[in-house]
Design brief:
70% of the residues lie in helices and 0% in strands. By secondary structure, it is an all-alpha fold. The N and C termini lie far apart (102 Å).
Length: 253
């Protein structure tokens, strides 16, 4: 084994600094700091049970050692290293206790805020879960009692019946069936479900299998257009042009 030469070993001299005891007229203030520390720690226990051991140890062992009490109380917090170091370097017991108490109170504020946020989130999650569960139970009971059929199933059944009865051309039939299959995979409360449903309503409302004899009489067409539609002269003229061409050809494509 290799050894490190003594000349290369870092050595330091240390000196224990003695805390400055409080003056007799400040003893009552120090005791008040101690009581307040114990109270803050007691409140911290409500949110963070891990502080219970700190509280018991502080109450039973350190009440008369104000210097160690200040150090121990500061160590119970999540303060930064610089803040803890500042307390350790403070020799005045009065000031030291005050700084430790400030850190403890900050810790209590943080703890209360965290507890409040946690409760709000838990309350929201619990409420949403309860609502979801009750809705599912209500839906199941209504279906079992025959009071209400499944809304989604009812909508899909309606479109299937229309598809059978309307007898659309093959390309339209394929498009309608694809949209029905898509509807099966969507949640009935989603936005896309509503969009797909509206599209199917439009597709199935077209009278695919209904036809009539074409009327190519321009005078009759003009009369119907004027009676049913006010204005729209450009549109009317385009329709009349289309029918005039059809009249010449003998059919409308």
């Amino acid at each position: 084994e290799s050894s490190v030469p003594y000349s290369k070993v870092l050595t330091v001299k240390t000196k224990t600094l003695k805390s400055i005891d409080p003056s007799p007229n400040r003893i009552e203030y120090i005791k008040a700091y101690l009581v307040e520390m114990l109270k803050v720690l007691s409140d911290l226990i409500k949110n963070q049970p891990l502080h219970r051991d700190f509280y018991v140890y502080l109450k039973t062992h350190l009440e008369e050692n104000y210097s160690l009490t200040a150090d121990f109380a500061a160590a119970c917090t999540t303060a930064s290293g610089e803040e803890i170091q500042e307390i350790l370097e403070c020799l005045d017991i009065d000031e030291r206790m005050g700084k430790s108490l400030v850190l403890l109170k900050k810790e209590l504020e943080i703890s209360n805020f965290q507890s409040q946020v946690a409760k709000e989130i838990e309350s929201k999650v619990t409420k949403e879960q309860r609502q979801t569960m009750l809705e599912a139970q209500m839906k199941f009971l209504k279906k079992e009692l025959g009071l209400e059929s499944d809304a989604k199933e009812k909508i899909i059944t309606k479109f299937r019946e229309i598809l059978i009865n309307s007898n659309p051309p093959e390309h339209a039939k394929k498009a309608i069936q694809e949209e029905i299959n898509k509807l099966l995979t969507l949640d009935s409360s989603s936005m896309e479900f509503g969009i797909t449903r509206n599209y199917l309503e439009w597709l199935t409302s077209i009278p695919w299998s209904v036809s009539s004899v074409d009327s190519l009489e321009l005078n009759s067409v003009e009369k119907i257009l004027d009676e049913d539609h006010f204005g729209l002269d450009d549109v009317k003229n385009r329709i009349k042009e289309f029918i005039a061409v059809g009249s010449l050809l003998g059919k409308i494509h």
